[in-house]
Write a structure and sequence with these properties.
Number of strands: 11
Shape: globular
Number of helices: 5
Radius of gyration: 17 Å
Order of helices and strands: HEEEEEHEHEHEEEEH
Strand content: 15-25%
């Protein structure tokens, strides 16, 4: 997953699958006027040629969850934290709007928000936070070690950054990973992609072949035509 946390920037171009497995150096860039950070992933991940894999977390009711909970249905997976000032609420709002337009077809998807800030993001605070978004968006929590292992498996770069007053924020990946029902990464939604393109990608993910021509959106692209992709009548 392409790590970007730059709320003031425009839509980011999604990498090709080859770019995802390329080895690179972790780079930090400050976005103008925001203090936001752009992180580029590299070979720091334990398996740079595979995105996804086993993990052990919990849902908001304390039930253990693992990779098996994301199989059998396509999945849209987003990592973030509740104190995120712009990227996370913007992304979750865009996903929620698209899921609402999909209606029952959205039930064919797993949509999961994984906290990268287990120190502050308790199940109770996450439940309150997600109440503002589509109820089909689930959340996973874990210990710092469990979060680190899942982030590594899904190629999510993140780090804790101190701010004035003794508080801290998190730099983290800002793309939504898209996985088929077998757990294979098939695309992503870049930060800043609009609702229509997000809708097109989610429908293509949930209902392959339902959107003409050519099966709907190209899941790796962040611009271009959406092929008039829309929910089934």
């Amino acid at each position: 997953m392409d790590p970007i946390d730059a709320p003031a920037a425009g839509p980011s171009m999604a990498p090709s699958p080859l770019a995802l497995i390329a080895s690179a150096t972790l780079v930090t860039l400050v976005a103008t006027g925001t203090g936001a950070i752009v992180l580029q992933q590299g070979s720091q991940f334990s398996h740079p040629r595979r995105v996804g894999g086993s993990f052990a977390m919990a849902d908001l009711d304390g039930k253990p969850v693992s990779q098996a909970d994301l199989l059998g249905k396509p999945t849209a997976l987003f990592f973030g934290f509740t104190h995120c000032p712009e990227v996370c609420p913007t992304t979750l709002a865009t996903l929620s709007a698209a899921l609402g337009r999909m209606g029952r077809d959205a039930d064919r998807l797993n949509v999961v928000f994984v906290t990268l800030d287990p120190e502050r993001d308790t199940p109770e605070s996450l439940r309150d936070y997600l109440a503002a978004f589509d109820p089909r968006i689930r959340s996973f929590v874990g210990t710092p070690e469990q979060v680190a292992r899942m982030a590594d498996a899904y190629h999510v770069a993140y780090k804790r950054v101190p701010v004035q007053g003794g508080d801290y924020t998190m730099e983290h990946s800002a793309t939504v990973g898209l996985f088929d029902k077998t757990g294979r990464m098939v695309g992503e939604i870049g930060y800043g992609e609009d609702e229509d393109r997000t809708l097109s990608k989610l429908i293509t993910l949930a209902l392959p072949g339902q959107c003409a021509p050519g099966g709907g959106a190209a899941l790796w692209e962040t611009n271009g035509p959406t092929n008039a992709c829309g929910p089934r009548s």
